Amino acid sequence: MKAWRVCAWGAAPQLHELAPPARRPGRSIVRMAAATVGHIDRTVMAGQFMGPPPLPYTPGVEAAGTVVHSDRFAAGTRVWLRGGGLGTRNDGTWCELIDAPDEALGPLPEGVSMAWGSAFFSPSTSAWVALHEVGALRPGERVAVTGASGAVGSMAVQLARQAGATVVDTPEASSPVDLLVDTVGGPVLEHGIRTVAPGGRVVLVGYTAGEQVSLFLPELLQRDVRLLPLNMYRREAQGRAAAPALLEQLADGRLQLATRSFAFAQAPQALRWIAERGHRGRAVLVADTEAPRP
Ligand SMILES: NC(=O)c1ccc[n+]([C@@H]2O[C@H](COP(=O)([O-])OP(=O)(O)OC[C@H]3O[C@@H](n4cnc5c(N)ncnc54)[C@H](OP(=O)(O)O)[C@@H]3O)[C@@H](O)[C@H]2O)c1
Questions:
Q1: For residue 161, how many other CB atoms are within 10 A of its CB?
Q2: How far is CA 221 from CA 144, 182, 227, 290, in A?
Q3: Model confidence over 4-57: pLDDT tens digits?
Q4: Model-level pTM?
Q5: What was the pLDDT predicted at 293?
Q6: Which of 64, 58, 30 is nearest to 44 (CA)?
Q7: Residues 172-177: what's their mean pLDDT?
């Protein structure tokens, strides 16, 4: 079977021909239909993820496909995959046959495409946990989201509105917000803290605009703003608990998620695309068997 392999930290992935995975207790084999290429994959491939997988490894932390062998699901069941060390501690999803721990699989409703099944988990559960579990959002509160055009940001905007919050586009131009969901970090976070009302909260999700901030501590203390990090690997269980309801909302159109499909052989192009400013949506590798016939 074909699989993308990373042989050294920081090196580009290469396409290899590997033996198909053997069936093992506690593990399922899934034929990949769609596998997402995300920022977390770039972090792991750079060797910057805590407790990285042994080299060489197959990247990819999310996917969707059909079950080949599993003790939990009948052969042919449509599933999404994420967690259990997939693509972080062990080989991941950028391969034709995914060897995953049973707990990484979840059932994919018929109304949700393989592309969405592959791409939904990170943005929708991160946004949900950021708003509700970490940010403790209450109906009627004012919310701002930085990076609102991004995958997590656009989900946060949709879910905050659903929860009865008012989403403010330009908080600096209006009265302060109760909750800021910051997916961007760096100087955007430094500025964003000043748009939060005294006693409010900031949930930090990402740091594409910069890994460091300078905080004027007297102002932070006087504002009494709580700066709260989101770590979805520690909050995996909360994300998994939220996943079925989020999938239901994708299936019936209450939630929207932008994706862009790449052929399986185009993983390097997908990696470059997600690193570009202004790209819209999540990059999804589509298995050769799923690609539209000419
Ligand atoms: N903490 C966690 O557990 C967790 C979970 C999921 C994701 N994340 C992280 O969250 C971040 C966002 O993920 P995503 O999937 O939403 O990414 P995405 O779809 O690539 O969106 C990135 C967003 O950030 C904006 N942006 C990028 N660089 C910027 C800059 N220098 N200044 C201002 N805005 C900038 C982009 O705006 P433009 O369109 O204008 O470029 C876009 O709106 C990533 O860093 C990801 O690793 C963290």
A1: 12
A2: 21, 19, 11, 54
A3: 999 999 999 999 999 999 999 999 999 999 999 999 999 999 999 988 899 999
A4: 0.95
A5: 53
A6: 58
A7: 82
Kindly state the DSSP code that residue 69 receives in the 8-state scheme: E
Element (H, E) at 237: helix 236-251
Residues of the chain with CATH 3.40.50.720: 123-229
Per-residue pLDDT, 289:
83
Ligand 1 in reach of 152 Cβ (< 6 A): yes
Q: How far, in Å, is the centroid of ligand 1 from the Cα of 201?
A: 19
Atom of ligand 1 nearest to the CA of 274: 20
Where in the chain is CATH 3.90.180.10?
A: 2-120+257-286
The rounded Å distance from CA 3 to ligand 1 centre is 27
CATH ID of 2-120+257-286, from 3.40.50.2000, 3.40.50.2300, 3.55.10.10, 3.90.180.10: 3.90.180.10
Is 80 exceeded by the pLDDT of residue 291?
A: no
User: What are the tens digits of pLDDT across the range 86-136?
Assistant: 999 999 999 999 999 999 999 999 999 999 999 999 999 999 999 999 999
User: What separation in Å is there between the alpha carbon of 40 and the centre of ligand 1?
Assistant: 11
The CATH architecture one would assign to domain 123-229 is 3-Layer(aba) Sandwich (3.40)
Is residue 4 a contact partner of residue 58, using CB atoms and an 8 Å limit?
A: yes
